[in-house]
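User: Assemble these into one structure.

Assistant: Restating your components, then the assembled model:
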Amino acid sequence: MTSSPAKRLVVVGAGPGGFEAALTGAAAGLDVVLIERGKLGGTCLNWGCIPTKHLLAATLAVEGLAAQAKQKLASGTVTVDLAAVQAKKKKLLAATHSAMAATLKKAGIRLVTGNLAGVAPGVAQVAAGTDTEDIPFDALILALGSRAAAFPGVKPDGQAVLGVAPVLDFTTPPESLIIVGAGAIGLEITTIYHRLGTKVTMVDAAPRLAPAEDPDVSKVVAQIMRRLGVDARPGAKVESLVTEDGRAKLTLAGGEVLTAEKALVAIGRFAPTVVPGLAECGAVFADPSPNRAWIKTGDTLQTAPGIYAVGDCNGRVLLAHAAASQGVYAARHAAGQTSAPYAPGPIPGCYYGAPEIMRVGAIAAPGDLISEAAFVANPIAQAHADTAGFARVVWKDGKVAGITAVGHGASTMGTLATVIVSQAWTREQAEALVFPHPGLDETLKAALLGEVKAKA
Amino acid sequence: MTSSPAKRLVVVGAGPGGFEAALTGAAAGLDVVLIERGKLGGTCLNWGCIPTKHLLAATLAVEGLAAQAKQKLASGTVTVDLAAVQAKKKKLLAATHSAMAATLKKAGIRLVTGNLAGVAPGVAQVAAGTDTEDIPFDALILALGSRAAAFPGVKPDGQAVLGVAPVLDFTTPPESLIIVGAGAIGLEITTIYHRLGTKVTMVDAAPRLAPAEDPDVSKVVAQIMRRLGVDARPGAKVESLVTEDGRAKLTLAGGEVLTAEKALVAIGRFAPTVVPGLAECGAVFADPSPNRAWIKTGDTLQTAPGIYAVGDCNGRVLLAHAAASQGVYAARHAAGQTSAPYAPGPIPGCYYGAPEIMRVGAIAAPGDLISEAAFVANPIAQAHADTAGFARVVWKDGKVAGITAVGHGASTMGTLATVIVSQAWTREQAEALVFPHPGLDETLKAALLGEVKAKA
């Protein structure tokens, strides 16, 4: 770190990491410049967490009705006006952009619209059109985000093969949609368009859906996909994905060909483009190849003295709340408010599609001690006719080391689970807490108090 | 308490308190007899928490569609088949009864069906039809529950004026329904039947809806009732409520007369009927009048040596999870596993209607230090087009002493809020926790980190 606290802080990127860094820096008395080339809010607000939640909520009644109708408890139709939903989404995002701009202004932060063209020691160069500006800094916080991954033969072509942003902006649902990638993004978008009547086919080269999660979570996801009638194909290697005659044409490794009106590529995230001059300032990268050039950071989130990298661009945890937490820390560290290493505790991760998934801390490996409970006995899950799934606890030395849940409303347990894992609860602590009845959380309680056994 | 641990435990009442007491006693090695006159599960399972949740969930898509339709985001109809929902509810309750009976059997607990006819030192007398049986005990745990309150002129007559149980069993929604009582039960049943198309009129003598909660919560409830088109009348004193010509006829103190197809009396709970011989065994009561004869208990939930009272019947907290917690404690105490006073920490309470309400710990009084945040800025609430309400934190000596929330999904914060209040978090603890984004809990985070000010 710099030997004396920074006075001039430059933050690059106004996503969750950069925005919080700028506000924290200003609150700490620093002179803050925030550089953003596009919209305030980054991927999360504009093409990620938030628009997907709008579309999931706007289509929820379709699934609620379907679940009740399947049990012959209700009948009817719910027709979502996707164009109207998109118009409302735009309005809400615009309102959020305005609110964020006002917050920055109120905090005395200078917002510069432009591209980070290069970095030299103590100077960030911003380009906007043909203009450039050198902005001096004592500390620099890079919150550059990440890019949607693509590979030769599997990348958006702007015709029928698309990235996340245009798919989240559809104003009429496509008749059919191929989704490549069965991670959080692929699963949430599957849920949205399935509810809107689109015939969805999901493929992933990984041997199971939600491949980053507990294998038993993947089984529940597969079960829900079958129930919904989604053609989900884990273990399917894509040979090529192209637009042909205006439609998306997917060729699988075995030769099978699938076509659809549109296709979405959601196969992960690449590191952001390397900033000219950054390496020369001392920054280090995880890997020299351009797509894997995540900015490597140390204990204090610095990649070089006075140069911090927060959020996606450091490749630690690609989640908005992780970015925000790192942004706050980096700004405090730059301002001399803390010198302790960055230690945020466990970071929760949620999927908000059908089914919802929540995980914090360790995933159970074979031989790990676990306890669990199924949602089938939960009265709230029963009432919603949506009882698939479970909560599972991983124990280490008699303390909670990880919690995973999949099923109705599992995402609502995220904060509670984070507290329990971060405090490494014992069984006795769980026993002593009075959980409100009835609640989905009671399945987590049952898991915490369940028989502890070694995972097969 | 008895000088040596009990061997023979008799538990009376198989609601949440008695059921947990019996299982805990059996697990501790006691010889347990459980006496129940009716159905396993008590009020909670049969006529309270659980059936209301089934009906709320079964009708949720109606409200989801209505919220989206109001913003012209969706159109359609959802018609709930109430008879089918009731049939499913019965099936689920029957399955739960069977599962509970199997659990008791597996634990070696003898279940006796009958009425507690009287108590003498060391003996409980059970009557079933014309048979009676004397069951000896070393310790007795009374989990007698409570009765629906009624007053002369305002009580169910079994015709058009009804108690909760028959209203929760309707197989066709009434065209109109008067609900007397704007507490948790009245509000949840208002939500259910409003969604089913019933014209609901709600009256309460208290000056505001949800009178046990923060007055600002009542304002949000009133706002939602207006939005839904429910005729809610706090401050309306009922003079009489009778069946006339097959319809419910309500006369208010001012002389105004309202009629409806049916009326529900949900004006609170009375103590259970006093058990013959209980006073002679040394039990004490909160008040000699029959309706207020809550069984008074000391630090260890005993009302007399070896005689415990848990759950509603002791008048402490009329909530299922409080009863269960007390039942576990009493059985452990009787078995000699604990001698510490009963200290469960804060007990959360939730309302699951529209809007949801959650509260744990202190309610803010004028002059108290509070901080708060509104749901209007929460992206999940925005996505659901349901942004009324707020979360509020009450601070004492720099620590959280109470949390209240009202609004979309507020009940899902119940367990988390209970942890925070029971651990008396500081602002720094809240700041250090990474909340998953986006989530309703983030409004609680914003409240915890909000500006602290004295309540007006």
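Chain B has a mean pLDDT of 96.
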